[in-house]
């Protein structure tokens, strides 16, 4: 409930709040981490991939989330890991 109240009482745009809520739905309730793909978040929020990427960057910049890039063993990319702050 803390993270939900924190985000809805913020001055962030509706798109940023929607992206944050999507992350919150996937978050592990112990570590507050998750790793949904941009496509998954876009599908959940009905936003474009580009809009989701912009909102994720804004949430990082504003300190609401921490984003960690993840790679496969073969050096390929996979979804990022996000930590709710």
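Q: What amino acid sequence fits the structure above?
A:
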């Amino acid at each position: 409930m803390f993270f939900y109240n924190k985000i809805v009482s913020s001055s962030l745009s509706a798109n940023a709040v929607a992206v944050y809520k999507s992350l919150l739905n996937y978050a592990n309730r112990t570590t507050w981490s998750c790793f949904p793909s941009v496509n998954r978040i876009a599908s959940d929020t009905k936003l474009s991939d580009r809009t989701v990427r912009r909102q994720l960057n804004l949430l990082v910049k504003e300190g609401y989330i921490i984003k960690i890039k993840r790679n496969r063993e073969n050096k390929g990319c996979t979804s990022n890991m996000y930590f709710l702050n």
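Q: And what stands out in the fold?
A: Strands lie at 33-34, 65-68, 81-84.
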